Amino acid sequence: MHGHVERAFLKALDFTMAAQLGLPLADGLQYVTRAYVFERDLVLRCADKRMRNVVKGVGAGEVQIADARIEPTFAQVPYIIFEHAEGDVRDVVAANIGRFDEAWALRVLHGVANGLRQLHQEGIAHQDLKPSNVMAFGPVAKVGDLGRASSPDGSGMYDGPIIAGDLGYAPPELLYGEFQPDDRVRRLACDAYHLGSMAVFMYTGSGLTPLIEVELAPTFHWRAWPGDFRNALPYVRNAFDYVMTSLEGSMQSSLGGQVLQTIRELCDPDPLLRGGGAGGAPSGRYAMARYVTRFDLLARRVEIAGRAP
Amino acid sequence: MTAHRPDGERDVVPRWRSVRRTLLAGEFQRLPTQRELTPHQAADIEAAALAWQRDRDVISASEYVGVALVAGDSAVAGEAASFLAEGHGGALLAELGNRALNPSPTAGLDHGSPTGAVASVDSVAFVYDRLARQKARLRIDPRNPIAWADLARRYTALGQFERARRALSIARGLAPLSRYLLRATTRFYVHIGEPDVAYDMLRNSSRTRADPWLMAAMLSVGSISKARIGSLRTARCILNDDSFRPIERADLASELATFDLRAGADRKARVLFNRSLQTPTDNSLAQVQWASHRLGSMEVRLDETSVAFPAEAYARSASELGQWEEVLRHAEAWIEDQPFDNAAANIASYAASVGLEDWKRAIDFAQLGLRSQPREPILLNNLAYALLESGRVDEADAQLQLLDLKSVTDRERVALLATHGLLRFRRGDRLGGVEGYEAAIRLARQLRDPKAEEMARTMLFREQITAMEPGEAAAVVKRLTEASRNLHDPALTGVVNRVQQMFARLGW
After folding, report:
1. Exposure string for B424-444, b = 16+ CB within 10 A, e = fewer
2. Which of A83, A109, A143 is the endpoint of a domain?
3. Structure ipTM
């Protein structure tokens, strides 16, 4: 008999999260359970759709822990099994400090843009793209952790105006609490920003939002600003421009300003001006296909230049 | 004869500075507010802290410092920031660590020129260099309204008003409700003599009726353009709204006080001026300094107030006391802060001429002011006067030819007539010179301006002294001395003193 052993990654429901939510425990439990069910369904749906740049869920279920010390409520632990990655891109970036591989960085960004495109095609916005959620599978990068994604039918945990995603990587408009009435704009603009921020990370080791924060006087910081986002925007943009100028001098890119120009488009502080083709419908403006092509092209250029004698 | 009128009209027209200076001046101060972090956000910080404790590498340090910076609490990640600052992750992350360790109240605003000023006539190259950098910045991001406003400020300082108008219009198109831009635009329109446009803009802005800074600006331009102002009741309501800090209401209090002063309600004006002094802005402080001329017992203790850019108030105060070197020192700071403010160049050229007889500096300051307002009559007059005193008669004549006499007020005309008289004297036309000065004296008398009258009389006497009989000259000196003593004007006293010395040197 031939045996086939495949390594996998198991993600189990973390009940301790329920206690960290600041809700009564029962409500917290209900919340994390709902979140788990939502993520499981989404992961399996993505697997069904054969999304090649989204980390594949290969199974899900529940395991009964036979331990008398554990309350029955917590003894039934649901889990999701994912295909096994070599690690997230942070590990590679950390290992390569001082030995920057631009072709690899652009290939990662190409994979991430592709993952987002595949999700968007199904009406799903990731909303929590960050380095720890980008997994390396050899030369291929895939997007993982759909825990804060929006669902196509609007039933997701993070479909409302709540701030989705990691605070350290959040787009400015969400920090200042701007609520875009068009939820496609809200979600897709967030993903576009996260992709641009991911590019900043690949080149610098930091996300974009902290770099903007250090160029922003404390008076204009989102936690101190009493007005709305639109009134803070001129100062946020001013800070953003200084970050871009600073990156121009510090980013090790052989492509001139092309990567920076892409970051600029993806991360414009105004979500309504973000992406390409400003002024068009959200589906066109934030279309990831444009960035899939662009990162592919840029990666090829660097690869070809690297092969030249 | 030079001119500067410390007792001329003044309103609390907004200052127009860089965002950095506006911030330092207190215009962004609010009652303290702090948005709470959501449990998710707090959990993100905790997770990053745990990762840093576990991994202690560049990426975990960067993520921890990053999330702490975004949370507005970089101190919690001090250890990780120090790790980055040591350079483990390269120059950019080292800078991130350093900035997290040493947060600055003007972070992000310290780039480029510290002032954007035109500190001396020789610095034209500096201004053009800054202008070029500003344009380069806009080529990279033409959506940056602050950069457009900075460009407009530099154009205004150079007197290129149409370019400035266009730049400001773009800036306001990009951020129509920005208070900073509305106030900057207000100052611009006042500068180019279109206060009515500024008034309409502020009256039509939805923000004005709920914002003390904009309300103060609207009242000031309404006053200058002599508009019918229907918002005084709203303005007084805002003034009494304790949800604003005292400094946010200082400009409004002093502008309303100015309205009361002009209406003859001195007691109410005094109360409001005193209120504006609780936590003044540099502008409200200068307004009280100006009003102290008109309100008895309204004393301003400049040494007891603390504002970021007090130069105008200090320059005015020094001028009243005849401390001319001090006037120049503070006027320079004032010009550096507001390079297009002709009042600053005006007071400086006046102090250099009348107070110090330093014709070189008088010429420099007048030319500096004229760069931003090439046809400003008092500056042209002061420049011509200083040139005449330097023996550069043809140049002085050319400056006086530039004057548009239709735009000159009667009070300004007194100085112009006198300077024309001096020009005639320097051309050897004694009769024409006397006619010019006498016309100035007649007009000053007509305007009931005894200081200007005596000043013109003294200057005329100075030109005629050598042609007089000793007894007659002695009598005039005596009369002028008495007049200056009665009028308590340090500039007049200085000029009369010099005439006395001239008389003494003649040895009659």
Report:
1. bbbeeeeeebbebbbbbbebb
2. A83
3. 0.90
